[in-house]
Specification:
Elements: E1 25-26, E2 32-36, H1 42-54, H2 63-69, E3 73-78, E4 81-90, E5 95-103, H3 112-126, E6 131-133, H4 139-144, E7 150-151, E8 155-156
Parallel strand pairs: 5-6
Antiparallel strand pairs: 1-2, 2-3, 3-4, 4-5, 7-8
Length: 166
């Protein structure tokens, strides 16, 4: 994804309109396209993530939460169908998180997930976000995308759960 196309977008905004851009990234091996998510994609995104939520692979998202992910989200589209989704939640200029990455089972193993991760990382890079993190149960996939457990300077992310899971 060319960095130039994103340069005129603000670093932090809830009002980004990705629908205005024609930025696409065709897959070399398939006729699928990574593009910024649009609000009119929401129903299809909700349908895509539902089996992953039901299977415990993704956290449930309310309609409002999904709407908030659209301005920094990306979809993979193939033959008019959304087959993948990921979003970048930017917490500060220092830290962002890849959220809700999922790829339709029929499209898994074809590089769609890696391309969505790259779109999110490129988006963060273009906004000078220092670090991108991910919370995942599929660590090998993210290691293959360049993520690691240890940050520069031997820093590590630690978590504490403040309530029981529902």
């Amino acid at each position: 994804m060319a960095n130039v196309a994103w340069m005129d977008l603000p670093l932090f905004s809830d009002a980004l309109d990705h629908g205005a851009t024609s930025m696409t990234e065709p897959a070399p091996e398939a006729s699928s396209t990574i593009r910024p998510a649009r609000f009119d994609d929401l129903e299809n995104i909700e349908d895509l993530i539902e089996p992953f939520v039901d299977g415990g692979k993704l956290l449930p998202r309310t309609w409002d939460e999904l709407q908030s992910l659209v301005p920094t989200g990306f979809v993979c589209e193939s033959n008019g169908q959304i087959i993948g989704f990921a979003a970048l939640e930017i917490y500060s200029r220092k830290l962002a998180e890849i959220r809700s990455l999922c790829v339709a089972r029929s499209a898994q193993g074809q590089g769609v997930g890696k391309r969505l991760v790259k779109a999110c990382v490129d988006f963060a890079t273009d906004r000078a976000v220092f670090e991108v993190m991910v919370v995942t149960s599929t660590e090998d996939f993210f290691k293959n995308c360049g993520f690691d457990f240890t940050l520069p300077g031997e820093k590590k992310a630690l978590f504490m759960q403040t309530r029981e899971q529902p």
